[in-house]
Amino acid sequence: METGNPGLKDTRTWGVIATWQMALSGTAQAGEILNGGGGAGDAVEALIRQVEACPEYTSVGYGGLPNREGVVELDAAYMDGDSLAQGAVAGIRQVRHPVSVARSLSARHANSFLVGDGAGRYARDGGFEMADMLTDRARNTWQDRLKGTEGGAAAPYDGHDTVGALALDGAGSMAAATSTSGLFMKDPGRVGDSPLPGSGFYADSQAGAAAATGLGEDIMKGCLSYEIVRRMREGADPQEACDRAVYPFVETLRRRYGKVGEISLIAIDPVGRFGVATNVDFTFCLAEPDRPASVFSAAPDGQGGTRFQTVRSDSDE
């Protein structure tokens, strides 16, 4: 059944939105936290930890597909919309929940974005759970890809399913968080948009929040999360901000760069309205006081806007 934007009907006391259908259970958990009076930061962290822990999701956390050397390198970020504090990790290895490490780093004024061995050392010293993040399934997928190249270089896989989460709590505070294993068969050390503030995520409780998923190298060219928040600060509703930031930029990249990868953005404003824009078929999850955690699909309407369709709700299970 086709619907209009599911987030522009009225105002809410709280709300949460996340990228991709894989976030449905986490969105339900986040909704329970917010409905019980919990904070936006706790909600987005719990949502993403749920996705990170599931081995069935091959683009995030445990079970994430590795780089071309067979190593799972993870990126994650967290931002507090009240203080604008940010924390991030990139290329971190053998850490069960990178998003929690990122949130811990957001308490620092300096040294709040750590990469590689430094990020791993911080996690170990801080008592975060360490684990081998390469599952047998992911290892087999990697080995099959290597065999398929017959000794040549394996190109990165085209899927880029970062989990991003945005929340507004009953006190009016907002938070954003992201987590990903990045491109399958990526070069060791490659970092996409997900841990980069302004590109992969941004949150300002006085203006709104946004998060991205897709080909990070292209999302970074437009700093799209910040651009959407900037437009909301200037008075645009979330859907208008998403449409006006994403679709013209997609066309700009086609014209000036010659091609464009997958780009999808979600947004929420300080009164709980939602927005989404995408250049592919894209699923997202949301929950609010009058709606259980639900999955919607979005796609470009071909006229500079976005069309929506209901997929399922948590109550369907």
Helices and strands, with pairings:
Elements: E1 2-3, E2 15-19, H1 24-35, H2 40-52, E3 74-80, E4 86-92, H3 98-105, E5 113-115, H4 116-125, H5 136-149, E6 163-168, E7 174-180, E8 201-204, E9 208-214, H6 216-219, H7 224-233, H8 238-256, E10 263-268, E11 274-278, E12 282-288, E13 291-300, E14 306-313
Parallel strand pairs: 4-5
Antiparallel strand pairs: 1-14, 2-6, 2-12, 3-4, 3-7, 6-7, 8-9, 9-10, 10-11, 12-13, 13-14
Description:
This protein has helices at 24-35, 40-52, 98-105, 116-125, 136-149, 216-219, 224-233, 238-256; strands at residues 2-3, 15-19, 74-80, 86-92, 113-115, 163-168, 174-180, 201-204, 208-214, 263-268, 274-278, 282-288, 291-300, 306-313. It has 317 residues and is of the alpha+beta class. It has a single domain (2-316), classed as Glutamine Phosphoribosylpyrophosphate, subunit 1, domain 1, CATH 3.60.20.30. The strands form two sheets. The protein has a ten-stranded mixed beta sheet with strand order 1-14-13-12-2-6-7-3-4-5. Strands 8-9-10-11 form a four-stranded antiparallel beta sheet. Strand 3 (74-80) and strand 4 form a beta hairpin. The chain starts with a strand and ends with a strand. The model has no long low-confidence stretch (mean pLDDT 93).
